[in-house]
Design goal:
about 350 residues; mainly alpha; 2 domains; two-stranded antiparallel sheet; 12 helices; about 0% strand
Length: about 350
């Protein structure tokens, strides 16, 4: 083990290594981005931006864990890289100020990817929320990992200065990160057959309907009766919006609206507002938006009815959105016929 070096040299070297770690993290993500773009020459992208809506079929085919996968994808490479640099700090007694150094690494790695995007006017509010979420998660990672390294010695993970296994070490963890990324973040998995797809879709819709009905059933009944809103249609929208905007994301959206006073979609119903809305309030606003639709969905009609399609598109004009709502309605028609008048 090397002897102690003067403090000013230690400080310079530790900061240099911290910056290097941040640059390696950024280079890793750029390599993944380049590889994805080069191999992504198909009509439907393999990796969709997380501020976009995911279709209901993509969700039940593996997308139900996409938020977990996304957090793992953004945190696993920094975790491995700054841990290895932490091992170097420990092995060669360069510094013990791990939290400070790890925060430098995270700042360098997020500067072009997240921090820079927050200042751009063309970046949407939903995208900015994702960047803020990334910054929060990675900052927490740096603090937690820095604390753990203050009580746990992982110096044995550090490569030798002689460089005998340096190339093997670097190649190994890079390959593992890439394999892990490809395996965990692909939300467009394919079913073995159509029957499996149908069953998974039905299970998801029925389970979501039960959860939303248990939590918001009385509120939905109240406002649908007041505004003559179709409960069936409102439930289908809530099911779809809930899978795309889970509760943590909705909380961040409300905080963002409160701080910026800008209009964006908030709440479980994802209705536009310039102030924070509870899930209950968003349901009330959605029922007003769907006013006088209580007889639009009937047992003896197909859910592909053009009038129904126009109503859905007035809520969200995306074709993907309409298609997903119609798929959910088709399942509800079979498994929740009580909701059809």
């Amino acid at each position: 083990m090397l002897g102690r070096t003067p403090y000013n040299i230690d400080m310079f070297l530790s900061i240099f290594l911290a910056i290097s770690a941040g640059l390696i993290i950024e280079l890793f993500f750029r390599a993944i981005k380049f590889n994805s773009e080069e191999s992504n020459k198909y009509p439907i992208p393999k990796y969709r931006p997380f501020n976009n809506y995911i279709t209901v079929l993509e969700y039940v085919s593996g997308g139900n864990t996409r938020w977990i996968n996304y957090v793992i994808f953004r945190t696993f490479p920094p975790f491995i890289i700054i841990s290895l640099f932490g091992a170097i700090y420990q092995k060669y007694s360069i510094s013990s100020n791990y939290i400070f150094l790890f925060l430098i690494s995270i700042f360098i790695s997020t500067l072009p990817r997240d921090i820079k995007q927050l200042s751009k006017h063309e970046v949407t509010l939903s995208e900015k929320i994702m960047h803020i979420l990334n910054l929060i998660v990675l900052t927490m990672l740096a603090i937690i990992l820095g604390y753990l390294l203050s009580i746990v010695n992982i110096a044995f993970l550090a490569p030798s200065l002689e460089g005998i296994i340096d190339n093997l070490w670097a190649s190994l963890f890079a390959a593992l990160l890439i394999i892990f990324y490809l395996d965990t973040t692909n939300i467009n998995k394919h079913f073995k057959n159509e029957e499996e797809s149908r069953i998974k879709l039905a299970n998801y819709v029925v389970n979501s309907l039960t959860q939303i009905e248990n939590k918001f059933g009385s509120i939905i009944d109240k406002y649908c009766l007041r505004n003559h809103c179709s409960k069936t249609l409102l439930y289908s929208i809530l099911i779809y919006e809930n899978l795309n905007r889970p509760i943590l994301v909705r909380m961040i959206e409300n905080v963002f609206v409160k701080l910026t006073k800008k209009t964006m979609t908030v709440g479980i119903a994802q209705v536009k507002s310039s102030k924070p809305l509870t899930d209950e309030k968003s349901i009330e606003v959605a029922s007003v938006k769907l006013k006088n639709t209580d007889h639009i969905i009937k047992k003896d009609m197909t859910v592909e009815n053009m009038q129904l399609l126009a109503i859905i598109q007035s809520y969200n004009e995306s074709i993907q959105y309409s298609d997903s709502i119609l798929r959910i309605l088709n399942v509800m028609k079979v498994y929740a016929p009580k909701l059809f008048v």
